Amino acid sequence: MDKRYTIVLMLAAIVACGELAAQGAGAVAAASSVAGPERETPTTRQSSMHTEASAAATQPAAEQPQQPTREPAVSENPAPLTMERAVMLAQSRSIDAMMARNTFLGSYWNFRAFQASRRPSLNLSANVANFDRSYRPLQDYQSGEIAYRENYNMYNTGSLSINQNIAATGGTLSVASSLSRLDQWAPTRGVTYYTQPVTLSYLQPLWTYNSFKWDKKLEPERYEKAKKEYLEQMESITVKAVQLFFDMLLQRMKLDLSTSNYANTRTMYRIVEQRFALGSVRKADLLQLELRMINDSLAIVGNENLMQSKKMELKSFLGFGEDDDVMLVAPESVPEIVLDHAAVLDRALRNSSFVIAQRIARLEAESEVAHAKSNRGISAQISTQFGLSNSSNNLPAAYNRLLEQEILGISLRVPIMDWGMGRGRVKVAQARMETARNRLEQAVADYRQDVYAQVVKFNSQRSQCLLAKRAKEVSQERYVMTMAGFANGSVSVTELNTAQSENDEAGRKYMTELSNFWSYYFNIRKLSLYDYISATDIEAEYDRIIK
Prior knowledge:
Elements: H1 3-32, H2 41-57, E1 80-82, H3 83-93, H4 95-117, E2 121-139, E3 146-166, E4 171-186, E5 190-206, H5 211-278, H6 283-318, E6 327-329, H7 341-351, H8 354-374, E7 379-392, E8 403-413, H9 421-487, H10 493-528, E9 530-531, E10 536-537, H11 542-546
Parallel strand pairs: 1-6
Antiparallel strand pairs: 2-3, 3-4, 4-5, 5-7, 7-8, 9-10
Helix pairs in contact: 1-2, 1-5, 1-9, 2-5, 3-4, 3-5, 4-5, 5-6, 5-8, 5-10, 7-9, 8-9, 9-10
């Protein structure tokens, strides 16, 4: 090797090492941003762009791949957004959270309507200004002759009643008071009052389906299920918010890596270009680096577009405005939590809506059988009424010398021949109940297996995160060393590309494993409605929601 070639190579190595020191630090900072609090991404990007501009000044314009222009951030100093704050915003102002609250409110008012049906109800009814002027056919009871007579009157009536449903028997008890007035203008002028100061009545079905009794069993369970489902829906919102948070975080990391890779590849390209001019490298190596540089440039555009898409999706879900910007802060570490399958299953069976849903399904099946049996056989209804009444042309006199009235009636329905229709309905209902019982047993077995699988995945995920983090650190260190080796000529282009690809893959792998850890954690929290970090049950202030 002659002296001139040695001097040129030494100068190129000195320049390259200076640039690599800056670029290597930028690459490590960009990739390390996923392991701790987020660094200012614009700083890393500005450093890369500054290096790129310096390299572009020494390269002919025709040989430079077009570096995509990037839009400046909407907000120069966006507020840091941690995973915990993203969860809080999602649960407080996302559209999904509003829908969950409205669904719960609907269930609450259904329960309130059930409670109201078990309390006495006070009702006022009236029929006023019922005017009738017409001719009516009347038949003489002695001769049988029919003749049309003028009907010219106005009828007014009003009543006040208190009704009470009896859940134990399925009957209805009523106490009422009523007053009626009849104004007649033909054939003679007259006024008649009819009063019923007090009337006590009771209606009792026999051998029929008692809807009051079954509602008493079902409605409280349905309301408890609605409360648990509200908590689970809020946890589902948490899972979605965490997923969107890490989706954007991963895409931002890819953008930072592609930007840093582009700048580093440009620097390597300049070194190889100088070596190619001296005839120490093949043109294939130069073309391979140029292809890598073009691919990195294309990756910047693609990752920028994808990151903006993920950012808009996250902002929309969290309720941010279009002009708001967000700066994500990755979780610093994963908590040391080891879950016991039996304890998680016990909390899940105690806290979640699953067990309540099974009880409701069983009660509904039994209710359907009871309804089918009641419609198959004899049904009867007893109606009793006791009261006082009187009529007079004078209102005060209508309340004097009240007469007792007693009414008792029994109505029966006896199916004589239905060609087995009633029996068939009972059999169908019983078959459905057995099917429901079998389905419930299978659902419990599947639920237990799901809880077990979730716990196993979570317990192994923390070690996966630690291994992925270590792999990321090793790949970063190796990439920096490989770039330095390439600058002094001891590393080939293929080895450089391999180190860069492995560094990128290790960073993406760590972010994916970190995302999986928190997704597993919040899914288990949703199953058991228990926060294992704070060791508390997940509750909600239902009174505030109702108000």
